[in-house]
Amino acid sequence: MKTETLKITLAQRILSISDNALLEKLNTYLNKESIIGYNADGTPINEKDYLEDMKAINEKIDRGEFKGETSNEVKKFIIDENSLEG
C-alpha cells in the first residue's frame, strides 16, 4: 500500500474509533515512536530510544564508568582537525 493511501486508511479508521481507552493507547504509542532526531548516518532516533540511551549514560556517569570530553578538549580537537586542512 502506498504511503498516502495508508495514511488516509489509518486516519479513517482512527476517526471511526469511539473507545477512548483505545485512542489513549494509540496516542501513547505514537508519542513513544516520535522521531526526535537523526544519527550521523541518517537513521532516525525516536524519543524512547533517546531517553533509554541517556538513562544508560547517566548510570555510567554515576558509577564513574563514563569518560566524556570537556568543552576545551572538544574545541582543541576541532581546531587541530581544521588546522590540518589549511
Write the layout of secondary structure elements.
Layout: H1 3-15, H2 20-32, E1 35-38, E2 44-46, H3 47-63, H4 71-85
Antiparallel strand pairs: 1-2
Features:
single chain, 86 residues, mainly alpha, two-stranded antiparallel ribbon, 2 strands
Mean of pLDDT: 87
How would a crystallographer describe the biggest sheet?
2 strands, antiparallel
Order of helices and strands: HHEEHH
The helix content is 55-70%
Which class of secondary structure composition applies to the elements? mainly alpha
How many domains in all?
1
Query: What is the alpha-carbon Rg in Å?
Result: 21 Å
* Number of helical segments with 4 or more residues: 4
Strand order of the largest sheet: 1-2
Based on Cα principal axes, name the global outline.
Answer: elongated
Q: What percentage of amino acids are in beta strands? A: 5-15%
Instruction: Give the distance, in angstroms, between the N- and C-terminal Cα atoms.
Output: 51 Å
Unreliable spans? none
DSSP strand tally: 2
Could you write a compact summary of the structure shown?
The chain has 86 residues and is mainly alpha-helical. It has helices spanning 3-15, 20-32, 47-63, 71-85, and strands spanning 35-38, 44-46. A two-stranded antiparallel sheet has the order 1-2.
What does this structure look like?
With 86 residues, the protein is mainly alpha-helical. It has 4 helices and 2 strands, in the order H-H-E-E-H-H. A two-stranded antiparallel sheet has the order 1-2. The model has no long low-confidence stretch (mean pLDDT 87).
